[in-house]
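Running co-folding for cytidine-5'-monophosphate.
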Amino acid sequence: MLNLIIFGPPGAGKGTQSEKIIERYNLAHISTGDLLRAERNAGTELGNQANEFIKKGELVPDAVVIGMVRNFISSHSSAAGFIFDGFPRTVAQAGALDEMLHEFNAEVNVVLGLEVEEDELVKRLLLRGQTSGRADDQSEDTIRNRFREYQSKTLPLSAHYTSQGKYRSVQGIGELDVIFNALCTEIDVVKK
Ligand code: C5P
Ligand code: MG
C-alpha cells in the first residue's frame, strides 16, 4: 500500500493536486472536507453537527472525523493506497491514522506539504468562494479563523512528521504541472 498525506493550509491546492495524483498512482482520494460537506448536504446527524463547526471555520471534533475516515478505509480496503487530503488535522488524528493503517500492515509513506503564503491563500479562497458555493470561502473572517485553527492545531503535524523523516516541503505557488511534477518526484522516492 502507498499512503500519502497532502498537507498544507486551506487554499494551498491539496484538492487540485490530489485529483492529479490519484490518476497517476491509482490511489483512493479521501478528502475529509468533501466527506463532511456531503454529510451536511445529505442532512445526516453527523453532517448537521459538523456544519456548526465548518461555518465558523473551526475543526470538527477528532472522534467524528476519525470515525468517518475509519468507515471510508473499511469500505475501500482493496485500494492500492490512499491519499489523505485535509486529514489528519491534529496530532490525535495522526495517531489514529497510524493505528488504522497498522491494521493493514501499512503506514504513512510520505507527507507532502504545499507551501503557500497567507496573502496568496486568502486571494485563492475568496476567488474559489465565488464559484464553490462554500460559505466558509466567502467570508474573510471565517478564512482567517481557519488559518488560526491551522496554525494552532494542524501545523504542529509538520514537526511530528519531520521527526519521523516523512515530511517533504513543496513550493505550492506556480504552474500546476510544475507543482505536480515536484510532488511526483517525492512520491517516486517512497514508492516501492
Ligand atoms: O479540508 P477542507 O478545507 O475542505 O475543510 C473544510 C472544513 O471542514 C474545515 O474548515 C473544518 O471546519 C472541517 N474539517 C475538519 N476536520 C477535518 C477536515 C475538515 O474539521 N479533518
Ligand atoms: Mg480541499
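Result summary
The chain has a mean pLDDT of 97.
The chain has one domain: 2-191.
Job closed.
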